[in-house]
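tool=predict chain=A
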Amino acid sequence: MPIAVQGPIEGVQTITLNQPDKLNALSAEMLRELSQAVRAAERDDAVRAVVLTGAGSGFCSGADISEFSTELEAGEHLRSTFNPLITRLHTLEKPVLAAINGVAAGAGLSLALACDLRFAASSARLVVAFIRIGLVPDAGLTYFLPRLIGPAKTLELAWTGDPIGATEAYELGLLNKVVPDDQVVSHAQELASRLATAPRKAVALVKRAVNQAHELPIERVLEMEAAYQTIASRDANFAEGLAAFREKRPPRFNDK
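tool=predict ok
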């Protein structure tokens, strides 16, 4: 099976790209199954956070080039496959954490960038590989990457196609943390478990606010924050959080 799904365990669902013999290249079948898995996680109230990783020694080597031909209508292919998946990951109102266990190249890097947080194995390599076959970055890469590392560095990586290591990617601001190879998945799962116990509505509103703030002037961001804070403060978890603070005890959030 090109996709393996584990959980939810303690609110965390782990989705694994599972074609290690092809470095988890995104075939049409894998894209279909991955989209279905993400949709299922979105609809399942038992899933509070998602971890995305790859089987074997790679995260994802990008689109499956063996399925390409010069007859391919690239734009329509993106509109019908990658674009809905990237949009769903970006707007899913649950935390999505990427555990980058090896190479993330081309659209595989785009997939990692569409996640909310990114943790990489120390041996991981990240490559904006599109120029190597005469294509331009897609699957959201030109949206996410400049926002993380700036336009000049994005252009350098996109024009050269040179790989960068996990340490350099972290220093650029592309990754949240670099961890030993054998700990990257467990590290992401542990943080996801922690996020799964946080107030569901507040978590969703934080993600929505951060995503929307990229596109808005300060006046509209301030109004957005006020509107979302009104929603959050009406939730029972705010009352519990306030009571716990006053009583100097851990909060007991409940979204059931």
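The domain at 3-196 is CATH 3.90.226.10 (2-enoyl-CoA Hydratase; Chain A, domain 1). The two ends are 33 Å apart (CA to CA).
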